[in-house]
Amino acid sequence: MQILKHKTHIDFIGKRKPALFISTLVNLAIIVGIAAVGFNFGVDFAGGTVVELKYNTPTTAEQVREKAQAGGLHDVSVQGVGAAEENSFLLRMGGVTQLTEENAEHAKAAIQGLGETRNVYADMANGIVNFRSSQPMNAQAVKKAVEAAGIGVQEVRDLGANQGGTGYDYQVVASGMADKVFSALSAGLDKPNFEQRRVDYVGPQVGKQLRNRGIMALLYSMVAILIYVAFRFDFKFGPGALLSMVHDVIMVAGYYLVSRREFNLTSIAALLTIVGYSVNDTIVIYDRIREDMAKYKGKPLPEIINIAVNDTLGRTILTSGVTALSLIGLLIFGVGEIFDFAMAMLVGILVGTYSSVYIASPLVIWLDERAHAREGHHGAKQEPKAA
Amino acid sequence: MDRGWWWKFGMIVAVTLGTIWFLVPTYYSLVVLDRSERNNIAVLEQRLPKWAPPAKYRLNLGLDLQGGIHMVMRVDTKTALQKRTERRGQQIATYINDKKLGEVTAETDPERLQLVLTAKDPATMDAIQKEVLATFTDFTLESRNGGTLVLKPDESQVNRFRDEAVDQAMLVIRRRIDKWGVAEVDVRKLGTDSIQISLPGRSNPEQAKELVGTTAQLEFRMVDDTNPQVFAQMFQQHPPPADSKITLVEDEGFPQLSSPNREALLAYTKDKTPPGRDVVTECVANPVKKNDCIAYRSYLLDKNVPLTGESLAGADASVSQMNEPEVNIAFDPAGAREFEKLTEAAVGRRMAIVLDDNVHTAPRINEKIGGGRARITMGRASGRSFEEWLGEAQTLALVLKAGALPAPVTVGEIRQVGATLGDELIKKGSLAALVGLALVVVFMAVYYRKSGLIADVALLLNGLLILAGLAFFNATLTLPGIAGFVLTLGIAVDANVLINERIREELSHGKSARAAVDQGYDRAFWTIFDAHVTTLIAGFILFFTGTGPIRGFATTLIVGLLASLFTSIVVTRVITTYFVHGRNAQSVSV
């Protein structure tokens, strides 16, 4: 069996200018979109709490939301997971602990009401209120007072007397959000009518750290691949491979931007896979261009590239098709992150195939022309040489 | 068929059989064993047939697939540093006053972690500054304004202190989790000030947070030695059940009960403990993996807790004039008085140092100890080197400090997946992978006929190799890992497509079957190699820079690419060569 019965003679290179123009436009639009609207960051990066619940009885997202709001959770978003009859919901909140800007003030007031205190300050990131008291305090009393102000307390820590004799230090550690969700949703019930399936808390600092590390991983691998391609092939091949990689990554980022699917650590893994796939595809075509450059000495580069791309077209379509085929299972049965991963991969495979033909290859011509122009200036003209 | 071919064929058969053999522990842990025993390496070890590889070479399921809690705790080193700076400031003030250089007050700026010394008489500041900077070398001068001196803790000291604080916290967390009885816990340092904890099978994040996040409880309690034979009598009068594995051991003349199972030991002694007494266990550390307990031993302690860690001012390990490692502890004034009273009444008895319900050591009180300073001499018993004893002393000092100077921990990240969700995910994930694989296998067979079937054989071997490779590295299979698995199979297919397309091309140029196969493989080789290496580079960078799920994905990718290089270049070629050369075929089925 054969997909392309006859040898094709499509003039890919002739259409490089409009293709480059459209690609640049789409890429810029995505970058502007990211800057203006931003991703729908998951808790991995944004910090916050996600709780997944499965109800035993038929329940709607609206009922869950009402119950949560009645229990004092106002900024919670409720989203159904899977089919409606699964009764599974994702609850998403901004905070990690019950200490928020708003109720930190109540907590401070409650502590100050207990006696002579100073240095009362809320460490929002860690969900801790620190204070120094002139008298030793009873931890239970502190806990009660802060809880009366509406904040669940996990522990009151006695840090001991200050060495200068100016007082005694204490820390009030707020409970997590999940606790509050649990108590709000099971309020008035003997036994919760749901099962807690998943809880993710990510503190804002950790989130930032995870995001930075993810992005750094992406950049490092792109640079390393660029170096490998530049040495293995020729320096004029490097930038093309790099730019088509950047193009593909931006396009897949565009998928996350437009679909509003959650952007998290798995999304970074997806982007990285795209980098690998994109370069894989580009390398195969570059390899053929290099081979044909040796074979058809004297032919102009654009013509050679057209031959190379046409010769490998069957393989390109087939490989993309088979890889897409292997993703079908993930697209049908994959839930949540797996589905997003497969979808992002599918987008990546399509744009990756396109970019190796329309972006990676034309750039080689452009760099080659520039090199010639410069060499022409300096005198001796050289034949294009393969590494 | 020449000899070289047979060699290669033999190698492939050996690799295939070796791969299947290597997956036996994985098969047992995921399929044969009950889910509750999945993480219990001891059970797995017992159930495995004799000929199987060691149980440690098995594929673990990530917490996202089997359910459990993953958490990252951040050690609040800032608070600990602030307390330390405060203490040092007080020492400096006392020193200056004692030396009669003038009178200073010390205050700590909690935000900037600086120490501010203010002299009563600004004229004395010159002399004070000189003396302080010469004596307290762990501080450097930040600024000076008349009678006010701003000092900053030395950077290297701060870093050392920070490391120590994280080590302390790790020690405490490890002990607490061991007490909770979770199998296969993983506690490790993450970055400079975080600790990563994995608790497979656990489902209550709030409980885990409380267990790990509360401050350590240090107690000094007296050992009840009025009847040294209490445990021996208990053992003889009520023989313990065999499955509790309780045995009678003797330590420095005192019979103790010992069991690898803490719960069983406590349950056995529960109703046999004399009134007003508690049985508290001591962890016998594994000599190789210091943080693991190989057994727990019983101590009979007074219920009354006369002194807690709150009275402790500091602890340090040092070496005595007799060249023996020792731990020096210091109490605050109130604690010192209490300690003196306590030791006076209890000369000759043993005092247990208990951290979070774990007896750490129980030294004998030789004399009344006044002045708030005590020394625990480690001795030099046989069988252990000086370094080991010194290490022990340092650990004890750490434990004491962990109770006395809390470096509070806060939650950086908690992820919990319920067991049923984990089961569902692994079911759906593997179904997705199998469907993807089946589609590809069928397509290849239809499209390339016999060559496609050969590629399919290679593909299946590739899948087995990935699983065995992951088992070998004792890697953890996560959700993104499954996705990486599918992707790698896609890349492996691409290699076969490249080869077959090349062979077709060569055939269309009118080459013979043999020449087409040879040239097809030779020409495709470097393309496949380059394509794999570039993706491998991405994989390695991901592995070294990524965390959590990214790392899981990278591991699968790396193992998969290496396997794919082997199967697509070596395995398919050996099989194809058999059909083309061996059978001397005139045509090749692609």
Layout of helices and strands:
The complex is a heterodimer of chains A (387) and B (590).
Chain A: H1 16-36, E1 40-41, H2 43-46, E2 48-55, H3 61-70, E3 77-81, E4 88-93, H4 101-112, E5 117-123, E6 128-133, H5 139-148, E7 153-161, E8 168-174, H6 177-185, E9 194-202, H7 204-232, H8 238-259, E10 262-263, H9 265-295, H10 301-311, H11 313-333, H12 336-378
Chain B: H1 3-22, H2 24-32, H3 41-47, E1 60-61, H4 63-66, E2 68-75, H5 77-98, E3 104-109, E4 114-119, H6 125-135, E5 139-145, E6 148-153, H7 155-180, E7 186-190, E8 194-200, H8 205-213, E9 218-222, H9 230-237, E10 247-251, E11 254-259, H10 262-270, E12 277-285, E13 293-302, E14 307-308, E15 312-319, E16 325-331, H11 333-345, E17 351-355, E18 358-361, E19 373-377, H12 386-404, E20 409-417, H13 419-472, E21 476-477, H14 479-508, H15 513-545, H16 548-582
Parallel strand pairs in B: 1-21, 12-18
Antiparallel strand pairs in B: 2-8, 2-20, 3-4, 4-6, 5-6, 7-8, 9-14, 9-17, 10-11, 11-13, 12-13, 15-16, 16-19, 17-18
Helix pairs in contact in B: 1-13, 1-16, 7-12, 13-14, 13-16, 14-15, 14-16, 15-16
